[in-house]
Amino acid sequence: MRVLSIGLEKSEKICYNISMKTQNDNIEEKIEKLAAMLVSSRRIVFFGGAGVSTESGIPDFRSKDGLYNQKYDYPPEEILSHGFFYSHTADFFRFYRDKILLSAEPNAAHYALTLIQKYRDLTVVTQNIDGLHQKAGNKKVFELHGTVEKNHCVKCGRFFPLDYIKSRAGVPVCDECGGLVKPDVVLYGEGLDDETVGGALTAISRADLLIVAGTSLSVYPAAGFIGYYGGENSVIINVSPTAFDRRATLCIPAKVGEVLKKASESAFAK
Ligand SMILES: [Zn+2]
Hints:
By secondary structure, this protein is of the alpha/beta class. The chain has 12 helices and 9 strands. 39% of the residues lie in helices and 16% in strands. The strands form 2 sheets. It has a 6-stranded parallel β-sheet, sandwiched between helices. Strands 5-4-6 form a 3-stranded antiparallel β-sheet. The radius of gyration is 19 Å and the shape is elongated. The site of zinc ion (ZN) has 8 residues, from loops.
């Protein structure tokens, strides 16, 4: 597929290296700009990273105070790998139940998307695996890294819901064939699902508004996905600078939930 980035280049640049104070003064104004973009757009893609889930209390794997700096017998990146899953299955599930299967509720960002999809063609592309978009009622969702909500027996392929993992101690096995039950989560060393990637890229390449939120876009494969966007307006909502800022039409350095709630209500909640 051809990489479309012309729209980003030709767009008016309003992301400057300006002081934080000036930025804060401009946040409300920027939210109104985003609201206007929501109104004028027809096909919107929301591309979300870990920052969307942290607002629901789920720690960011890679942030300074996230999982990767906590102490375990093995680094979390190793525990969450394909090889470790099969070689240290009990350790994997101990960590998985303790640190990944957290009870969390959708936040203002997820619910703002539910509002937007009532008025516009909205596709959510997420790097998160917590299923919170669906829990908030978001309909078109591509989960690049899979989801904790679905699990399959590695032997017979039988499906198991999240409750099956939660309600059992130790290593969950298939009640039909005794095979190992594996979460449909993309582990390190595993490839992304072709159908999910294809759906996400198609939505991105057809969109006329791209909102990238809660991600620094420094982690593969996020940056590559953004390259398929060729629409008019692109917006970054992230508390810290991202690799995409220079190419975006609008950067809003604030919390995703707060920004999306205000913008979506200004645009659609009359
Ligand atoms: Zn089975």
